[in-house]
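Here comes an entry:

___
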Amino acid sequence: MLIAPEIVYFNVPDAGSTRRIACAQWGKPGEKPTLLCAHGLTRTGRDFDFVASALASNFHILAPDMRGRGQSAWLDDAAGYNNSAYVGDVLFILQSLGISNVYWLGTSMGGIMGMMAANAAPGLIQAMIINDIGCHIPADGLKRIGDLSRMPTLFDSRDEAEACFRLRSASFGISDDDHWQHLYAHAIARSGDGWQFTYDPQIFAGFATANTTEGLSLWPLWGAVQAMPVLLLRGAE
């Protein structure tokens, strides 16, 4: 059974202004160990509703919508969509809540964020689960991101949006229609007379210069990560 989270909003400082970051929260800080859940490139924190519901009796859980996704604000300058900025937003949230150490669950981009956070804030992360990412992003993985960036995000009808989302997410291995409906509810929103995916298409700007021939190495981040317990999941499905 799903446990509905509390949605908390943070006004995160950014170059003299602030931006709104939404964060799903199960439980209260300080009551239990904190599990920080970081989602993938085009996803939202609500991807973790099912795992959070299963773990809420043992953890205080935070699942932010990274900037430009879900209920968090979109940016005027696409240069602000980068992993360092996302990590900075998460560190601000944790500091605001008085949280000094967490367990980290990161999928794809969220796994990269975890590795970066381990380097940026030594001692913050007690243990880490990294899903669907490793220390090398191969060229074909970068190509898939490029292909994704060229797919439509605006649709004339909700049915069309749902069909596109389901096609893009077929490899998730989801068979329960209630699960699909839950994902639709947080991945698709009304936009004027049509429907759109709940992410800013400009989030792909940082991949424009990625080397799609040699791939991308993340090995320089691994030194700080290997000092803690780590579970690597190969997220094929």
Remarks:
- The chain has a mean pLDDT of 94.
- The longest strand covers residues 17-26.
- The chain has seven helices and twelve strands.
- The helical segments are 49-55, 83-96, 109-120, 139-149, 158-168, 177-187, 222-225.
